[in-house]
Write a structure and sequence with these properties.
Layout (H helix, E strand, L loop, with lengths): L23 H16 L24 E5 L5 E6 L5 E8 L13 H8 L9 H10 L3 E6 L4 E8 L3 H13 L5 H18 L3 H14 L12 H6 L2 H11 L5 E7 L3 H12 L21 E6 L5 E9 L8 H12 L5 H9 L6 E7 L4 E10 L3 H17 L4 H18 L3 H13 L10 H6 L3 H11 L6 E6 L1 H10 L5 E5 L32 H8 L2 H7 L2 H14 L2 H5 L3 E12 L2 E12 L3 E8 L2 E8 L2 E6 L2 E4 L2 H12 L2 H9 L4 E9 L5 E9 L2 E8 L5 E9 L5 E14 L2 E11 L2 E13 L13
Parallel strand pairs: 2-6, 7-11, 7-12
Antiparallel strand pairs: 1-2, 3-5, 3-6, 4-5, 8-10, 8-11, 9-10, 13-14, 13-25, 14-15, 15-16, 16-17, 17-18, 19-20, 20-21, 21-22, 22-23, 23-24, 24-25
């Protein structure tokens, strides 16, 4: 089941991308070590039969308590005293579903602006204050909720609560920040609009939900964003950011009384207010519609198949979720078996459910070679019909149940996980005590239950189908397998806000790259979008650019940095684990801009990980698999945060550069600070010593549970290789806790690297 807490999708950055060995290789080593450590516990491939699941271990819930303040704010506390840290998460029951008509993007803009300045603190002061206490803060929004999260050490709990209350209660919505966020949103849309995976997913939502808010772009379009003003943001905030529309979770090294007292102190004075009634808009009834988006340069086809289902609180939701797991989820996955294992048509196939407050859907997805598009689609629809027509076997159901029941303890492993579960239940109006009975309820589901919900909610003749790829090369296949009622739309003409899904008139020229927009853009923004340097230049001051220039010279100079094409490095890595230190040796191959391969040896066990232009795979003694989604997202984030890429993009005007006040490293060293940011890059702070060497960097990230993490990297032992300086030693810390160390033993630049290294083994 997907997380219900808003979690913005990772995006692929525009422009040049590099993988800097000052960061990427040793962070990859961290992932390699973690996966190899798990691999060592499993028997070697091949196996005669699947191993039996381990006996379910006892699940103990940490103590938690829910109270309601006099003004209606719900406060959840979860006690956890293992580390001197506290996490705060506040959710507002309002998201893009509450956007005003013709102003899509208001909720998303409000969320992005909460930590960009208040009536008492500038955006810089907000960032400096959370940084000064070694904390991290993040904001996000989804269809139904808006969230703000923070993590700090216990001795800063009071200060962090003050800051959290300030950004929630008193956002400034300064005109300068509003325009900057609009610019970033529009730039992201232009990048996404040329990504087949993104286009397939958003178009599927549009087909299923129609003009219901769930079917429209939550971040708005260039056209709707242009109509949004400061007053729209203030009105949305005033109407929805009221205590009786909020839930606050406080998790960590505090007592219940301390947590409730802090919540009362900073939010108790906020007056209760009437919340606008939720607009009752019913999604359209499921109907067959096949839309082909023509992207002639594609060599494969993205496929989405599904339809409307049920809201999260529906009585059949758990049975339905398990039925879809049998079709394409963890523990069973008929789609993967048929499409990949038996036919070799794809690297992977899956199906999932999405349960929201007002409605829900289910979707099966895969990608396949252009020449096998028709066959893959036919097989997917056959599996839909089989699930509805044939009773699921006891073994297949048991496998899916064991997976869900066995993995359940991982979803409540930390108090922060428990808080997430409790918040979800509160937000979706579900009994909180259901959390503790999840495993028993899953194991009680029968094959008859699966067949009943499959017959009731799967309608094979009314599925919504989206295909994105080279239409000319595969539409004949669709006719050959019986699909004749489809429509073909060129990708540059796609308009999600149009009833016909087609752009009625092109009002502005497309950018030079040819990347289309998902909706028409107003002329006021055309100059900024056709010139990627325009927005950044407005934000970057001359003194910061001068400092950046000197930093680049200290690193080796811009020509030398841009001349790096390949890197091969050997390193020794040690990962800090609860059981002790886990050492490994790794060899990393990098081909810029977007390929790398890491070969690791841990106690004689060899693991390979590779990233190739947005795809990733892992090879271990158990075989070869596609990289799990969290690992793939982490790889992509590493590419975006690459030091060499950031330096080049900043120098060439694609990123915003700001000079921040000097501060001290954890070891007391004084450092200068440069902040880099951009449409696809969250703030990254670079720490510079007296010689303008980059001795560290820091950024915020979110773990798979939604918990914000402050990541810090410390670099040392710089050595020059072909004129470019690389740190041969580095250390990674999460929230101040050491995670990993690495040391290069050899490093060579620009030697030939075979393309075959990055191709996934069959």
């Amino acid at each position: 089941m997907k997380s219900q807490i808003p979690n913005p999708k990772s995006q692929t950055p525009a422009g040049r991308r590099r993988f800097d060995l000052g960061l990427g290789a040793w962070l990859l080593g961290f992932v390699v070590c973690a996966s190899v450590a798990g691999a060592q516990q499993a028997p070697f491939w091949p196996l005669e039969r699947m191993p039996r699941p381990l006996a379910a271990r006892e699940v103990k819930f940490p103590p938690y308590e829910i109270r309601t303040l006099a003004n209606g704010m719900q406060v959840i506390t979860v006690l956890h005293h293992e580390q001197p840290a506290v996490t705060m998460r506040l959710l507002v029951r309002a998201g893009s579903s509450q956007d005003p008509d013709k102003k899509r993007g208001v909720a998303s803009l409000v969320a992005s602006l909460l930590d960009q300045g208040t009536t008492t603190r500038s955006a810089q002061q907000v960032a400096d204050q959370i940084d000064s206490i070694g904390g991290a803060m993040g904001t996000g929004s989804g269809e139904d909720f808006t969230s703000v999260s923070a993590v700090v050490m216990k001795d800063s709990f009071g200060l962090a609560m003050d800051l959290l209350a300030d950004v929630i209660r008193n956002p400034a919505f300064s005109p300068e920040e509003i325009e900057r966020q609009k610019e970033q949103a529009i730039s992201s849309q232009r990048v996404n609009a040329n990504d087949p995976d993104y286009v397939a997913s958003v178009l599927f939502d549009r087909l299923v939900y129609g003009f219901h808010p769930y079917g429209l772009p939550g971040s708005g379009t260039a056209e709707t964003l242009a109509t949004i003003g400061r007053q729209d943001l203030q009105t949305f905030h005033r109407q929805h950011f009221v205590p009786n529309n909020m839930v606050l979770a406080i998790v960590g090294d505090v007592t219940g009384e301390e947590a409730f007292a802090a919540a009362q102190r900073v939010f108790g004075g906020l007056p209760r207010a009437e919340v606008p009634a939720l607009r009752a808009i019913d999604p359209p009834e499921p109907t067959r519609r096949i839309v082909v988006i023509d992207k002639p340069d594609s060599v494969q086809t993205e496929i989405r198949v599904g339809q409307l289902a049920m809201a999260r609180k529906h009585v059949d939701y758990l049975k339905w979720d398990l039925a879809v797991k049998v079709l394409g989820g963890e523990g069973a996955n008929r789609l993967h078996r048929v499409l990949r294992s038996e036919r070799g048509l794809t690297y992977g196939a899956s199906a999932d459910v999405e349960g929201r407050k007002q409605a829900g859907d289910f979707v099966a997805e895969t990608d396949t070679r252009t020449e096998t598009t028709g066959e893959a689609l036919r097989l997917m629809l056959e599996e839909f019909s089989k699930l509805q027509r044939n009773r699921v076997s006891e073994r297949e159901l048991t496998d899916a149940q064991n997976y869900l029941a066995g993995s359940f303890p991982l979803t409540i492993e930390t108090p922060n996980d428990i808080a997430t579960q409790v918040i979800n239940n509160v937000m979706f109006e579900l009994p909180v005590d259901e959390i503790g009975t999840f495993r028993e309820r899953v194991l009680a589901i029968t094959p008859d239950d699966i067949q009943r919900v499959a017959r009731e909610y799967i309608k094979p003749d009314r599925l919504s189908i989206v295909l994105v790829g080279n239409a000319k090369a595969f539409v004949s296949q669709l006719r050959a397998v019986g699909f004749t009622d489809f429509e073909v739309i060129p990708i540059e003409q796609l308009d999600l806000m149009s009833a016909t899904l087609r752009r009625q008139a092109v009002r502005v020229a497309l950018p030079p790259s040819g990347a289309p927009a998902l909706a028409p853009a107003r002329a006021a923004y055309s100059a900024q979008q056709t010139n990627p340097r325009a927005g950044s230049a407005l934000q970057t001051d001359r003194s910061a650019l001068d400092l950046l220039r000197r930093v680049i010279e200290a690193r080796g100079g811009l020509p030398a940095i841009k001349a790096v094409r390949t890197v091969v490095v050997d390193s020794e890595t040690s990962l800090q684990m609860e059981q002790g230190t886990l050492p490994s040796r790794t060899r990393t191959f990098v081909v810029y801009p977007d390929k790398f391969r890491v070969e690791a040896d841990v106690n004689g066990t060899r693991t390979v990980q590779a990233y190739n232009s947005g795809r990733a795979w892992v090879q271990s003694p158990a075989g070869v698999i596609d990289a799990p989604a969290p690992m793939l997202a982490e790889f992509a984030a590493n590419v975006r945060r690459d030091l060499l890429t950031m330096l080049v993009d900043s120098a060439e005007g694609r990123l915003t550069v700001r000079s921040l006040p000097a501060q001290k490293m954890r070891d007391g060293r004084p450092v200068q600070v440069l902040e880099l940011s951009g449409p696809q890059l969250d703030r990254v702070r670079l720490f510079l010593d007296n010689e303008l060497t980059i001795v560290g960097q820091a950024y915020s990230r979110v773990d798979p549970t939604g918990r914000p993490i402050l990541a810090e990297e410390v670099f040392s032992d710089y050595r020059k290789v072909d004129g470019v300086s690389f740190p041969y030693e580095a250390q990674l810390l999460y929230n101040g806790q050491p995670i990993m160390k690495r040391r290069f033993t050899t490093l060579t630049l620009n030697e030939p690297v075979s393309e075959a290294l990055f191709n996934r083994p069959q």
